[in-house]
Amino acid sequence: MQHIRTSRFGQRRAGAPALLSLLALVTGGLLAAAPSATAQQAGDPASNVKPLCASQAAGTMHCLALERTDVKQHRGITAEAAPTGFGPADLQKAYNLPADGGSGQTVAIVDAQDDPNAESDLATYRSQYGLPACTTANGCFKKVDQNGGTNYPTADSGWAGEISLDVDMVSAVCPQCHILLVEATSANMDDLGAAVNRAVTMGAKFVSNSYGGSEDASDTTADSQYFNHPGVAITVSSGDSGYGVEYPAASQYVTAVGGTSLKQDSSTRGWSESVWGTSAGGEGAGSGCSAYDPKPSWQKDSGCAKRAVADVSAVADPATGLAVYDSYQANGWNVYGGTSASSPIIAGVYALAGAPAGGSTPSSFPYAHTGSLNDVTTGANGSCSDYLCKAGAGYDGPTGLGTPNGTAAFTG
To answer: How many CB atoms lie within 10 A of CB 23?
Structure first.
C-alpha cells in the first residue's frame, strides 16, 4: 500500500512507504500485564501492533499513533494494578523531569477530526495517576475547531485515539500545563496548517503535531504559511515507517522528533534507550535527508546538504509503549506508541523549560545544549551507509541529538 497526498496546488504524488509488517512487529519487548509499568522490557518476543489511522485517502496526512493489540483493555480507574505501559512517573524518571513544572504554560495539540470523549478520557487518565484535574471548567483544558470555535469536525475513532495519546503525554510530562486541543476539519495539510496557525493565534507557545505525509516541492511554501512562528516551539513526529523523510517533520522551522525503545536497567541513569526500528527497515522512527527543505544554520552534519531529520527524540516503540486512556469506539486503557508519542512528550519538555523568547527559534535550542541530552548510540531504523539511519555518538538521524536529560537543552 502506498500513501498518496495532494499538495495545496492539486498535484497528486506518491508518498512515503506505508508501515510494513505492523501486524508482526519485531522490535522487542512484550508488555506483560504486570502490576508495574516499569516491568516492561525491550528485547522479548514480538508484539502485535496496528496503526490507528490505517486507511489513507488521497490528499490526506496520516496520524502516527500505533496501538498494541496484545494488551488486555479495560475501562475506568483501576485500583488493583497500574495500567500496562509507561506512566507519568516513568517518563519523569527516565528523562529527569520535574513532577510539578509547567505552571502557566499552554501546550497546543493539533490533530484532525473530533474526539467527542477527549475531556472525559483525559479526566480518567489524570485521575488514575493522581494528576491535578484539567477541565474546561477550571480553565486548564480547551477544545476548539480550526477557526477557534466549537463547530467540531466529524468524529473519527482513529484520530480520537491519536488525540488521547497526545493529551495524555502532555499531561504525563507537564502536569501543570494547560492543554489546547485544536481539531482540524480534515487531515489535509491546509486544514492542519490552519489549525497550527489558530493555536499560535490563541497564545500557545508550544504546538505538537503527530502526523505526516510525503514530501514535495510545495513544502517550502507550507513552511512559510504554517510553521514559521518565531518564539513558538513546534514539534512534529518524524514518522513510523523507518528510514525515510516525511513532511512536516522536514520543515526547517520545526523540531523533528524521532523515536527510541526505552527500558529500565541497572545503570546510573536507571534507563537505557536505543533506536526504535531495525536495520531491515519498514518500521521505526523516520529519519533521513530532506529533498526540498533547506538546512537550518544550526545543523552541522556533513552528510546531508538539506534539512536532516530528526533533531531530538523520546520513547516511541510500542513494544516499550505508553499507557493511554481512549474510550471513543475503543475499550479504555491500552498501550500506544509511534512517534505520535514522542512529539507531545518533547512539546511538554519545552513547556517545562519555559516560554521561548520572542523572535527566538526554539528548534535550534538543543543544538546549543547537547551536553544536556541523553545520547542514543545503538540501533538502526533501516539500511544506509551512514548516520542518517544508524545511531552513533553525537548526532544521528533516528534519534537526533538524543533524548531529554532535564530541561536545559530546551531553553534559549
So the answer is: 10
